Structures are given as C-alpha cells and as structure tokens.
Amino acid sequence: METRIQKVNPENFDDRELDDACLILKREGLVAFPTETVYGLGADAMKEETSKKIYEAKGRPSDNPLIIHIAETESVYRLAKVVTGKAEQLMKAFWPGPLTIIFEKKREVPYSTTGGLDTVAVRMPSHPVARALIRCSGILIAAPSANTSGRPSPTKAEHVWEDLSGRIDMIIDGGQVGIGIESTIIDMTEEVPVILRPGYVTKAMLEEVIGEVAMDVALLKKPTGELRPKAPGMKYRHYAPKGKMTIVEGRMEDVVREITGMAEKWKDRGKKVAVIATEESKELYPIEEVYSIGSRKNEASIAAGLYDILRKMDHIGAEYIFAESFSEEHLGHAIMNRLLKAAGYQKVKV
Ligand code: TXA
Ligand code: MG
C-alpha cells in the first residue's frame, strides 16, 4: 500500500484540504492525524472490520481497546449507556481537550473497538485538524496512538512515517503536537472515579470539578500477578527504546556522578551509551553523549520532548541509556509513568 502524506497547517487551513482524508475514512481506510496529545491512527469506530484494520496496521493485541474520538458532545449519547452527572461536569470542564472518559457502552458499539469490553473510551480532541476531520468524514473515529505497538507514541508526522508507512492510506502532517503524551483516562463506571492513565489533566484538576478521584494503584509499579492496571494497554512494556534504560533518582550532583560513572563503564566496554538529562543539568556531565529532554522549570516542555528523545535513542543506536528522574507531582506523574515503562521499571536511588 502506498501511504500518502498531506501537509496541513493547523493554524491556517481550509476544510477542503481534508477532503481526500475524509473520503478515505468514509471508504473504511486508515488515516493518521494530529491531535493535541499525540498522533492518532483513525478509522470508523462503529464498523467491526475497520477497527480490525487498525490492530493489524499497528501489530496491536486485539484485547487492547481503542478510544473513540468525537467532535460534538451529543455523540457521547450514541456511545454511552449511562452518562452520570459527574461525567457531564467533566465533559463541560475539559472537552474539547486531553481527557478520555470511560462509560458503559451501548450495544451499537462493536466489541472489536472496545477489545471485547462492555465499556467504551470516548474523547473529544481540541486539535483543529482532528476536529475538522471528524466533522467532514461524518463518522466517529477510533484512534489509538499512530505508532507500531510497543514503540513510543508519535509526536511528529515523521514518527508515524517511520512506523506505519506502507501500512496505512494517509498521514496528515500537522507538524509537532503540543502536549506530547497521551490523554488522561478516567473511568466513570466506578463508584469513585478512577484514573487509569495519568496525563496532562491531573488528579487535582479532576478533583476540583467532581470531588474524590482514585488513582489506579498499579500505575507507577511494575505489573505483576495481582497488581494489574485496569486499562489493558497500560500492562504492556510500552514506549520503550531498544536499548537498556535505567532511571537514576537522587540529588542532582549525586545523580550526575552516578550516571557518569555507569556511562563511562559501558563506554570502556565498547558500548554505545546515552544520557537523558535536562537544560539545567546537561552541562554538568563530563561526557559527550548527553541529550536534554527539556527544562525542569517547565514540566510541559519535558512531556513534549519525551517521546522524541526516546525515539532518538533508537536512531543513534544507544545500547545503554541513563535518564534523570522527575518529581511525581502534577504532570510529573504522567512523565514518570511513561519513563518507568520505557525503562522496564529499572530505577536506582543514589
Ligand atoms: O491522547 C490519546 O488518548 C491518544 C490520541 C490519539 O487521542 N490516543 C491513545 O490511544 O493514546 P491508545 O490506543 O494508544 O491508548 C488507549 C488506552 C489503552 O491503554 C487502552 O487499554 C485504554 O486506553 N482503554 C481504551 N478503552 C478502554 C476501556 N473501555 N477500559 C479501559 N481502558 C481502555
Ligand atoms: Mg498507544
């Protein structure tokens, strides 16, 4: 299959530029598109066969459900059996935006889209291209992140091309996305709503609107027999570069000393090493192989740079990767959740 690329400037475009993409979606094809979080791989959510195509293109296990993207609030009522008052408050406060809400599903939602579950994940993206695409295609779009299963989510069209060229019909290139990590997922089918995946919308932000919210306890730990994350997708070793990655936690000077020592040891043995540091620390390392992920003064810049840097580790062929650690407060919780998964939960304290 030949994958076409359609460039669109999110700040200034005409809906007609999306005509071909919309036609592909109507004809049950696959189109990757930018959202405010990461690039999604879209197809008709209400057809059994099209969601199967998504799983095939990504190489994704079919028990891992997809998020349905909508452009109008009314669409929720086509998908969800019950929409509670609290869910409506969240929709009002955070949509359009990076929040995915889990509802009990209606019969019409195919099990191929929900991975066999009786619940459905719904999100209204705020990205203008995503919104225009949902509207012009006239369908509800199932869209997982547009990466090969197991690789970091794409934050640029180039990342999508790297993973999926030849496997999908089109990539809409809207440049680099703003947030850079996937949406927060909240399960509203529980008595006390539960965060299944941390993201840009934090626990504190949610609690301000609906009161008590719980956090899936498995989120910062390695999945084991009893301790399994509730979002099926969170159990996989996701977001992972090919090299062996270790996160080092402690006071800045101790971390720099420890990482330098380990990096030098592996370099001496002829291995390719890389260090994931920050704007504040990058000059402190007496070695060359240092990459800055963003500034500690601006957590959002770290989220935005995370997946690009993880992909860069593969591009340079890093065999041993050492990353600094971040506070688990606010957006830091989402950042550490992704970093720990990338490292296979390998973390040392100094
Ligand atoms: O920001 C995002 O959410 C991006 C963009 C493209 O919108 N999408 C995304 O989709 O990250 P994906 O498929 O990569 O991740 C969806 C996650 C998976 O961990 C999946 O298991 C979980 O959502 N999920 C989907 N439906 C669910 C359900 N009914 N119950 C529990 N977890 C669900
Ligand atoms: Mg994904």
Low-confidence stretches: none
CATH architectural grouping of the largest domain: Alpha-Beta Complex
Largest sheet: 11 strands, mixed
Helix content percent band: 25-40%
**Record field, number of beta strands:** 16
CATH topology of the largest domain: DHBP synthase
**Oligomerization status of the protein chains:** single chain
Give the class-level CATH name of the largest domain.
Answer: Alpha Beta
Mind telling me the C-alpha Rg? 20 Å
Q: Mean of the pLDDT scores? A: 95
SSE order: EHEEHEHHEHEHEHEEEHEEHEEHEHE
The CATH superfamily label of the largest domain reads: DHBP synthase
What's the total helix number? 11
Task: Tell me the overall shape.
Answer: globular
Structural class: alpha/beta
Describe the strand arrangement of the main beta sheet, using strand numbers. 1-8-2-3-7-4-6-5-9-10-11
Q: How far apart lie the N and C ends?
A: 50 Å
The total tally of domains equals: 2
Ligands present: threonylcarbamoyladenylate, magnesium ion
In terms of DSSP E residues, the strand content is 15-25%
Give a brief outline of the structure:
The protein contains eleven helices and 16 strands.
Q: What can you see in these coordinates?
A:
There is one protein chain. The protein has eleven helices and 16 strands. Helix 10 packs parallel to helix 11. Strand 10, helix 8 and strand 11 form a beta-alpha-beta unit. It folds into two domains: 212 residues, Alpha-Beta Complex (DHBP synthase), CATH 3.90.870.10; 106 residues, 3-Layer(aba) Sandwich (Rossmann fold), CATH 3.40.50.11030. The protein has an eleven-stranded mixed β-sheet with strand order 1-8-2-3-7-4-6-5-9-10-11, with helices on both faces. A five-stranded parallel β-sheet has the order 14-13-15-12-16, with helices on both faces. It has 350 residues and is an alpha/beta fold. The site of magnesium ion (MG) has 3 residues, from loops.
